[in-house]
Amino acid sequence: MEFRRTTRADFPLLARWLGTPHVARFWNHETTPEAIERDFGGSVDGTEPSDDFIVEDAGVPVGFIQRSRICDYADEHIELIALADAPQDALTIDYFIGEGAATGRGVGTRMIREFTDLCFADWPAASAIIVPVIAGNPASWKALAAAGYERIAEGHIPPDNPIDDGWHVVYRRDRS
Asked: Which of 90, 94, 136, 149 could form a disulfide linkage to 171, CB 3.0–4.6 angstroms apart?
């Protein structure tokens, strides 16, 4: 797996992926050029404290993954911080497999495992990575478990998609 920083040239690909049913179900994101610029442009420009990556498998783009320190978005993550007792140095990741043909083949588990290693290498002060997942997305939380994450909590966090009830499972992986 290769992780390359997202550029504006990737925005049409992100819009296409975010519009596919298997991604839209859990990301619930606007796909207009303006919305993509608004939500991903800051990472490209370095004005947002998140790092966004296109995930490639054998040189073919298959998904998207991002990371940030939880405390850099404390207002947005207040429920996660309380539920998971997140340390100040903890990171969080979010991800999706954009290409439908890449789902169900272990790509998500590999992507999470390898990106976790990259996160710990790039952020030597990070003691843990904590990831909330809507409970209705078992493929995602099973991929986290298969990548070495442990389930540490469950509880209500406001959902990204209003059709969800907000019940989340929270996974954590500590630095070895």
From this structure: 149
The whole-angstrom separation of Cα 89 and Cα 127 is: 6
Q: How far apart are CA 129 and CA 121, in angstroms?
A: 12
- For the chain, what are the domain ranges? 2-174
What local confidence, expressed as pLDDT, does residue 78 receive?
A: 87
Three-state secondary structure call for residue 2: strand
Which residues of the chain are modeled with pLDDT < 70? none
Burial class (CB in 10 A: 0-12, 13-18, 19+), 33: exposed
**pTM (2 d.p.):** 0.95
Domain 2-174 has CATH 3.40.630.30: yes
Tokens of 122: 């790039």
Let me know the angle formed at the C-alpha of 36 by 173 and 136, rounded to the nearest 5 degrees: 45
Decide: 40 and 21 in contact? Cβ < 8 Å. no
